[in-house]
Each structure stands twice: as structure tokens, then as C-alpha cells.
Specification:
Oxidized Rhodanese, domain 1; 213 residues; five-stranded parallel sheet; 2 domains; elongated; single chain
């Protein structure tokens, strides 16, 4: 009977020791497991420096390579109406012409008029695409001095007389950028009555204007 009691005490002691060891193991392993779990969550939710650099690089590539509209669309233009007459310009600015007004001017090409339509594109562009009927070509890029040379030099260069200074000269190009520069040059050279067709060739073709080749 005494032996059995001793055995029972030994078994109880071993069981208690095992429980303490298990508890100690849990108390030491749980923080490690929790730390590992937390580290895993951090690495999952928060990108590393390398990932951030890669993301920024990818975003930069998208911004650089994303398709953009043509320069003609990106360039700001002064508004123009299809119904209103040519706007009265402020001092030192051009009148603004719209499609219908230029169409009326083109339809009267050949008549003696004080209004002269000038295409500011390069000659090769006119050869490839045509021009608005009745327009003369004064290419602003290759001949920026056209309004400063003498009348004889102008006629020798282009084969037709230069518009007189008392005429209203209306400029257009492909998208309204070169025509604005041409009008500014003309005004600086003494042509005070200038006009611009901001829609230019793009607008003319889109709206079905006649083309002279």
C-alpha cells in the first residue's frame, strides 16, 4: 500500500513537471510565433525599398510612354466661333477667322479683294496635301524674312507679288501655330491688318472644305 502511494506521488510529480515544461515552452514559443506572424504581415502589406523603387520606375515609364495627342491638339488655341464675324482684335493682335468666313473668302478667290489668304506651311506640305483655294504660300519656317526683304526679292523668291501693307492678310497653317508666328512677323514688319484662322488645315479638311492642288 505504501509502495502504491509512492508510485502515485511520483506519477503526479512527473505530470506536474510536464505541465510546467509545456507551459514554459508555450510561453517562449508564442512570442516567437507571433513575431514571425507579424513580420510576415509587415512584409506582405508594406513594400520593401526595392518594391517601392520598382513601382516608381514603372509609373515613370507609363507617364513617358503613354500615348499623347498630337502637338496640334495639345497646343492651346484662341477660341473661334462658326457663326460670329471675325473678332475685333486688341491693339497688336490679329482678327480671328472661322471656317465659314474662310470658306467665303476662298469662294471669291480671283476677285479683286483687299483680303489675302496666306498659307504659312512649307511648299512640300502643299504639294502633298493641297491648299485652301486662292491662298498664296509664304512658308514661315524656311522664309521667316519674307516680310522684311524688298518686294523685288520677294517676287524673285516666290514668283508672285507680296501682299501690300494696306491689305488684310489672313494666315493659316496646319494647326494654327505657325500661322500665329507668321502674323506676328507681318505685324512687326508693318502689316497692321492681320487675321488668323486658328483651326487651319486640320479644321478645313475635317469640315469638308474644298482643296486646291
Amino acid at each position: 500500500m505504501v509502495v502504491n502511494c509512492s508510485i502515485a506521488r511520483l506519477v503526479a510529480q512527473n505530470l506536474g513537471r510536464n505541465r510546467r515544461i509545456t507551459s514554459l515552452s508555450a510561453s517562449t514559443s508564442c512570442p516567437i510565433a507571433a513575431a514571425r506572424c507579424q513580420q510576415k504581415q509587415i512584409s506582405t502589406n508594406v513594400p520593401s525599398s526595392r518594391r517601392r523603387v520598382s513601382a516608381i520606375s514603372s509609373a515613370a515609364k507609363v507617364n513617358v510612354t503613354s500615348p499623347q495627342p498630337p502637338a496640334s491638339i495639345r497646343t492651346s488655341r484662341r477660341p473661334y466661333s462658326q457663326d460670329a464675324p471675325a473678332a475685333h482684335p486688341a491693339e497688336g493682335e490679329s482678327k480671328i477667322w472661322d471656317f465659314d468666313q474662310v470658306k467665303g473668302l476662298a469662294s471669291s478667290a480671283g476677285d479683286k479683294s483687299k483680303v489675302i489668304l496666306v498659307d504659312a506651311r512649307e511648299p512640300q506640305e502643299l504639294a502633298n496635301e493641297g491648299k485652301i483655294p486662292g491662298a498664296i504660300n509664304i512658308p514661315i519656317k524656311s522664309s521667316p524674312d519674307s516680310f522684311y526683304i524688298t518686294e523685288d526679292e520677294f517676287e524673285d523668291r516666290f514668283g508672285y507679288p507680296r501682299p501690300p501693307k494696306d491689305a488684310e492678310v489672313v494666315f493659316y497653317c496646319k494647326a494654327g501655330v505657325r500661322s500665329r508666328a507668321a502674323a506676328q512677323l507681318a505685324r512687326s514688319a508693318g502689316w497692321t491688318n492681320t487675321g488668323e484662322y486658328p483651326g487651319s488645315w486640320f479644321d478645313w479638311v475635317e469640315k469638308g472644305g474644298k482643296i486646291q492642288r
